[in-house]
């Protein structure tokens, strides 16, 4: 099929989504194309395998895939139906940050229908949130972004590379503890998304930093606060989603029979004007991290430490005094670059320690001539020290875990001229 790339619709951590048109010969149609460089498209190809097997009015539709050469780069492209109404997060902010309860019920019904379908296929979405729900004039809400999704039963080869993932604010307790990520985690995330639709904010608004949020979700007895202005029916629905014990959460098919959804068949179809994106994105979102601050909101850090020394470790590693300036491309975060001979920063050695909350990461350090790589996994502490990184130019350090999710990395030290200078680290991607 011949097609032309149009305007950019959105950027994610792993790919860029653009509008596209097929040439009249191929049947003039408009669709969306999600693209990544072929060499970095492992997760996009995985997403293609998943969405090509799905068909539901409440799941974004698959239209094909191809490989193209653009600006000397080989691109992998995944074609999807174009959903014109923006994301649910845009819709919420376009309505002043709070959707009407009938509209919340209307969209919630579609999300639950979409999830009921996915779960019946044995698929867990793992990243339900306002930014991953698209709004269509005809079908209402559609679930998108299957980059974190996983088959529950099937042990397919590629699933080995998909670690526990998602967005911390929306993570269920068992996921935050790194125990399991099954169907009930999507149900918890529906509860969080309803709070997002009702308040325009995150389910844990008092805690800004993702590491503290993960603690709170994982080890406290707390639940996100239910918006007081919601009806008793809506609160009861939230109660069925937001149970800390996954076994106590209702299933998607049970939720479809809940009066809150049964009463929302009124056919609300007005799509509010979209405004700016504000919904917390994956752990990569710069704004999310810019608000990092050491929070004292953990009810009992001592208890947590006793139960879990790893938790203490994360807590200690997460204390930052200032936010580093970094840039990233599709799959890399470059922490510090030294590309110019004139640059004052001369790295004579590099040392850091990094701690993974979930998943795994490859750390690569380049001195311009060679790359040194090291991979580490969930709850592993990586100590890296190399005195051979001494080039005056081309030094960079990158952290890569394919989709850059749920990683805490800390205490990054560059040693300049034998004097240690503390670069306060990363806690993310
Ligand atoms: N089919 C579509 N139609 C219209 N817009 C879309 C479509 N798919 C994605 N978008 C837009 O592109 C953005 C990024 O898409 P998507 O979430 O799939 O990318 P991602 O790289 O997986 O992002 P993330 O980092 O959140 O995982 C969406 O938030 C949305 O604004």
TrEMBL record:
KW Transferase (keyword) present: yes
E.C. number(s) listed in UniProt: 2.7.11.25
InterPro entries on file: Kinase-like_dom_sf (IPR011009), Plant_MAPKKK (IPR052751), Prot_kinase_dom (IPR000719), Protein_kinase_ATP_BS (IPR017441), Ser/Thr_kinase_AS (IPR008271)
The keyword Phosphoprotein belongs to this UniProt entry's keyword annotation: yes
Major subcellular site: nucleus
Enzyme class: transferase
Chain residues that bind ATP: 34
Name of the protein in question: mitogen-activated protein kinase kinase kinase
